[in-house]
């Protein structure tokens, strides 16, 4: 996916400083359930901003799919973020009461989006604000040549309405304009960001204080009232007194419509319709300057396109072509209508070879959009149509194979991948996908054969060593893990397992040691091993250690099937635990840099080469490094990008202020991290007493003594699947315990100048993180796990503000089982009294839970 998933949002306030921004214009969109006009809005603005940052949350319609499609269409311009924490929207009581620095506040959510923009000028765009291209182009060209400073250019849009069975557009005399001083192009600074609206507290607002205001008039169509279900902004929540009166006044003015036809005569007669207090900018678009409304004909386009498809299925190709052409007259860039037109013409034999290739490409692209939307059946049809038009279109075979694999049509997927390999036998990803299909069918021998074929083809070093190993008829050797010297290293107030110095240090050492811990699981091991072996360039550069933690059935034969002669396999005589097994691998290593790679993860081509190029020339102060990464699922499909790029940007090198990020939360994932062996020798290995957060702790321990190197390219993949431990850890409350312990441990070695601030931030942030997930154990019926989680989060943060958040959460329906448990155990009141608000006695909850 092209959308960054933001589970732990943070705001880098320095991003608001003008000196940290580039000359140019950022568009900012905050959207939720805007599928009806979102596409039209994006298309209308995209050419008139230098970037478009889109942040969305809690969508229940196709908004995410639309955003994903446009992010792929405009990858150089659009950066999209799915904000995962719950957000209390504007016009809600919670938004009024929440602190603006709370991640659930709409203000914080808005400023998070703003913090992702990179240009000095920003323009805020709603998902139903379809821009007027003629006006936007004029503004854009002016701002590109004239850099504004400390200025806000306010603008308006026209509220559009339509009547049933009437294609004309109207506006409302009682409320003709949207935007009277709340939306603008403005120059961003720390003073000019979002905050609560001083005049209307249930809304947020950009703070324009200190900026010179001008008004530039009408530049967009406001399509909110054209939506099928234009709803009240209060969304059924209760506001009190003056707040409710203000909201009702806004609603009344919009709903008590006095509609007038938006004719050219009417526009000319009311050219000064909008009355804004600030002076007009010399670029000014009055009401009379509005063009005819021609960008909102999607309903008619859909009607003609669908009718054409129906006629085509009936064999009435001439009539179908006429319908498609009509749809394209209304909307020339309608991809579906254009593809259907090409397919109909091809069925009539009316396309040249070049035209067939053109329409094959369009079919493939439309198939990709359908795949993103989850409409696999349509996607498969478009891919097959693309292949029918151009039998040599490699991308169509590959995409078809992926989609067939997604829906479990294994044999057809294999056939599609085989055809793709005939067209291009040097595509590593195809071999991976083909092997995944064989493994899904429990055809391990076939999967191994594919991996060996690919590795031999792609890596001559592998081919040479494996061939020699096989020809020598060497009996495979399964090594027993030798005794590891036991010792401790003290960092701060804690003792960590010591990592002994490398044996025979005078002998040549490889640059890399890759340690792959395994225990019983085999589903993804071949893919993991292959991703490393394809990058292996000889024993002098890399050693690969597989550490089998006493699997029930040894995994040696499976590992040896593709790694014989290269991989060194150790088996523990008994299960020593996950982290001691990792520490044993580090202790046995000889490489200068250590990479722990779990058997369900993988690295992408170039991982070791890119990092080695950087790390060979980096200062000795660099003790660890990380790259960006991707999340992928059980079927091998990439689902989203990692959080790293949103935290650290696109510039590689030594990370500045790394404590500010890693001290509060951990955006890194293990397959993307490498650690200098000397660093381990100095600070020790993984801390076995931490059940759930050992990586976060050791990353902080490293930061206490070393710098980190950052590679922004996505070079690793972290798998999300049903066998992960995180869900169980949340359900039992253990994760909250480990988070709290991890914060307490690192507090002992944090630099004195950062200690208080970072620890406070970490406690507050992780209190919120755990509280938002406190319903997970309740949903699985584990009330005791939920109670344990509350005990732990109160140890994280027991401030009055934290307790207030906890009490608010306990009043929600999802917390009812926990309320009853607390009352039954600690309070002398009947369970029936739990209806409605929590009783006054719950003010003693902190004491009760602590018991």
Automatic annotation (TrEMBL):
Q: What Pfam families does its record include?
A: CgtA (PF06306), Glycos_transf_2 (PF00535), TPR_1 (PF00515), TPR_11 (PF13414), TPR_8 (PF13181)
Q: Which CDD domains match?
A: Glyco_tranf_GTA_type (cd00761)
- Answer yes or no on keyword ATP-binding: no
Q: Which SMART domains match?
A: TPR
- Stored InterPro entries: GalNAc_Trfase_b (IPR010446), Glyco_trans_2-like (IPR001173), Nucleotide-diphossugar_trans (IPR029044), OGT (IPR037919), TPR-like_helical_dom_sf (IPR011990), TPR_rpt (IPR019734)
The residue ranges of the Glycosyltransferase 2-like domain are: 513-629
- State the TPR repeat positions: 301-334, 360-393, 394-427, 428-461
Ordered alphabetically, the record's keywords are: TPR repeat
Protein name as annotated: Tetratricopeptide repeat protein
